[in-house]
Amino acid sequence: MRLVAEFTTEPFDVEGPPPAHVTEALRAAEEAGLDCDFGPLGTLVRGEQQEVLAALPHVLEAAFGGGASQVTLQVRRDA
Q1: CB 7 within 8 A of CB 73
Q2: Contact 26/57 with Cβ under 8 angstroms?
Q3: Average pLDDT, integer, range 57-71
Q4: How far are the Cα atoms of 1, 15, 21, 71 from residue 59, in angstroms, in the given order?
Q5: H or E stretch including 59?
Q6: Which of 5, 6, 13, 48 could form a disulfide bond with 75, CB atoms 3.0-4.6 angstroms apart?
Q7: How does pLDDT run across 5-55, given as a tens digit for each residue?
Q8: How far apart are the first and last CA of the chain?
């Protein structure tokens, strides 16, 4: 089964380049081999269930390590 996860990191910084908590979380997802779609308000990742579930703790660690104060995460089956 394939899953889709979307995560948003805060605080939002709309001016300038994306903050470290955003880029580090994205990097962790990419390094896990997930298909990533980076957006201005969140990042969408797709992959096989075991890949997504194994990667999410690393994504969260990277976001908080990069200075996130909050991470919102949604996971669903890929249609």
Answers
A1: yes
A2: no
A3: 97
A4: 20, 23, 10, 10
A5: helix 49-65
A6: 5
A7: 999 999 987 788 899 999 999 999 999 999 999 987 899 999 999 999 999
A8: 10
The three state secondary structure string of 2-57 is EEEEEEEEECCCCCCCCCHHHHHHHHHHHHCCCEEEECCCCEEEEEEHHHHHHHHH
Length of the chain: 79
Q: Is the dihedral of CA 75, 76, 77, 79 positive or negative?
A: negative
Residue 69 pLDDT more than 90? yes
3-class DSSP assignment, residue 75: strand
User: pTM to 2 decimals?
Assistant: 0.92
